[in-house]
Amino acid sequence: MAIDGGAPVRAGRPLPSPLDASGRTIGPEEEAAVLRVLRSGMLSSVWGTEVAALTEEFAALIGSRYAVACSSGTAAVHLAVAAVDPEPGDEIIVPPISDMGSVTPIIAQNAVPVFADVDPLTGTIDPDAVADLIGPRTRAVVAVHLFGKPAPVARLRELTDRAGIALIEDCAQAYLAPVRPGGPLAGTVGRLGCFSLQQYKHITTGDGGLVTTDDPDLALRLRRFADKGWPRETGERAYLSFALNYRMTELVGAVARAQLRKLPAVVERRRAGAAAVAGRLSGLPGLGLPPDDGDHVYWYFPLLVDGLDEAGLERYAAALTAEGVPALAGYLARPLYAEPVLRKPLTYGSSGYPLAGREYPDGLCPVAEDLVYRRLVVVPWNENFTGADVDDIATAVAKVHTALVPS
Ligand SMILES: Cc1ncc(COP(=O)(O)O)c(C=O)c1O
Predict the structure, then answer these.
(1) Class assignment of domain 263-404?
(2) 138: phi > 0 → left, psi -120 to 50 → alpha, else beta; which?
(3) Structural domain boundaries of the chain?
(4) Where is this region: Disordered (predicted)?
């Protein structure tokens, strides 16, 4: 293996990366969008037309009645939680494998994240674990469509409807993912769907966010929360509710519109590359491939590796990286509940509010811990991989896997 001084599968030819133009789909359309806005002289979405058009186009593409734009995926989750309007100390159920942007907005609204364990094959929230945790103070469940694989939202919607609480879909990693073959798209099954336009996502504006809903009251609350509680529709200068400024700018909105037009092709290309790699790797003993019922949109390509300990998993990812295929052990360093912000907790001054007295011990979600520490390796994915690139990825995984995983 290259990590032991051998020849790497790819030398001197880095794979297309989402951190530069090689792994992004940005071209003359985005350039024209930026110039159009600059030349108009109107950079604010309060009076401009770009963000308004983006939200209409996005809602139409996803299949929701409304979309509201904001400044990031974290802001999108914050808008959604604020729209649900929990009482201080109410609980919101979340999975422990996600970006922290799925969780800190809950604390920002003075509610308490409660972590439900995940499915061992997909890492998405387990509805049985959710059912066990729903109690009198639960106000919502956040389902994260991890790596582009839809969480079981139909079941979660049944559960949450029965409990009279909200389902929030975190779709930051899952654009245009049907929740079942030929079915509705992620972001339209819950009461609210949250999307991110951060640099690594399927489409990007650097940062940016969108929230979908079919509910006009929720849509109004979302809009107001992103705009200081200001009722723009009446023309009155009033501040009708507690809110911040999370507005998207016209520059971001215009670039997002150009990106949106490319999204269906981006998803197709990501799926085609993933199918080629999965085809080459299937049957390798001790290697689990992402379950795909035609619904996976491959933000990342997750591998499930058998028989390793924590150090072994780290070495597996390092060995793949040394072969020229950047990979991460566990996706996260630790499940989100083990991060200092929750464990200490580090919230408002020294109060620990609203988490004081809450415990987030090791062992809270054993399936998630097994994935993060011992089983999961992720390969960041993108739509610009060529046939030769995906061949190299498959060759590198097979090489490292055969060397490190006893069959
Ligand atoms: C699942 C998930 N939720 C939320 C976020 C937060 O999005 P952002 O980085 O745009 O704030 C991200 C991305 O980083 C994410 O992957």
Answers:
(1) alpha beta
(2) beta
(3) 28-260, 263-404
(4) 1-26
